[in-house]
């Protein structure tokens, strides 16, 4: 029997990271899998960067990280007592290490801001880079999830849009809630409305327990339309275009806007 890949959550001691830990622990419970709480410890010595056990005095460098992880693990156990929790600390830069961990993860979860984020920035650089470069779906925790709200997903006819629909329906099933699918257009025609409605209907037939509403709205900014709906949602889902270091191009302008401004947690499906 295949083993479910764990949920991985990045922690740095910030309040937003602990919020991500609580969200990730509950999500791991929904998925019936384990949780990995992960911390990246920066180190200026290149001899310590291979990610095995650090030698000698470098053990002292790791003790504050282990204390931080123990706190995060306890937070996770309080949120979801039945979920097995594993702690992981590695030497290096967070974004690169998270991208590497994503190869073995079912989901990567991060807070929108960490201790190292720029004051006043809309989203931290680690969360943004991870959302663009991870090889698994990423959820960035921001705003507040409406307890009884729907899952919201943006509709388009790209491969990323299809992955977003798949992720969104699974999320709605696991939460026992409905799905709001939104297609926005502004160029004087409703675009591929009929095709998009059939795309949603095909997924709905696979998940008949999920109540679905499709919204076709004429607005100049799809991102603003989606972020407006996000205020009453549990989760909003966008599709990634590809993978790589240039976040705006690979996430698309809508995905980038949602990560920076949505009023609830944002999932980037891939």
TrEMBL record:
Alphabetized InterPro entries for the sequence: Rossmann-like_a/b/a_fold, Universal_stress_UspA, UspA
Signal peptide annotation: none
SUPFAM superfamilies: Adenine nucleotide alpha hydrolases-like
UspA domain mapped to chain residues: 5-142, 150-270
Domain of life of the source: Bacteria
Pfam families: Usp
Family: Belongs to the universal stress protein A family.
Protein name (Swiss-Prot/TrEMBL): Universal stress protein
């Amino acid at each position: 029997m295949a083993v479910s890949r764990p949920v991985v959550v990045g922690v740095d001691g910030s309040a937003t990271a602990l919020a991500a830990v609580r969200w990730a622990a509950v999500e791991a419970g929904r998925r019936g899998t384990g949780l990995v709480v992960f911390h990246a410890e920066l180190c200026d010595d290149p001899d310590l960067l291979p990610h095995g056990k650090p030698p000698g005095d470098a053990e002292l460098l790791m003790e504050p990280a282990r204390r931080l992880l123990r706190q995060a693990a306890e937070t996770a156990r309080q949120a979801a007592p039945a979920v097995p929790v594993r702690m992981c600390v590695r030497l290096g830069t967070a974004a690169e290490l998270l991208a590497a961990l994503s190869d073995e993860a079912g989901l990567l979860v991060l807070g929108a801001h960490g201790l190292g984020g720029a004051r006043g920035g809309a989203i931290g650089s680690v969360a943004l880079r991870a959302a663009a470069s991870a090889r698994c779906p990423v959820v960035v925790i921001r705003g507040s999830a409406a307890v009884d709200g729907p899952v919201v997903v943006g509709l388009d006819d790209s491969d990323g849009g299809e992955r977003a629909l798949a992720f969104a329906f699974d999320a709605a099933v696991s939460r026992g809630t409905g799905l709001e699918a939104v297609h926005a257009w502004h160029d004087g025609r409703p675009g591929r409305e009929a095709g998009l409605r059939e795309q949603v209907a095909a997924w709905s037939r696979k998940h008949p327990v999920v109540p679905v509403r499709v919204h076709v709205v004429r607005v100049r900014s799809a991102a603003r339309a989606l972020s407006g709906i996000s205020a009453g949602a549990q989760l909003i889902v966008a599709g990634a275009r590809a993978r790589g270091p240039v976040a705006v191009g690979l996430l698309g302008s809508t995905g980038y806007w949602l990560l920076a401004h949505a009023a609830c947690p944002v999932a980037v499906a891939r």
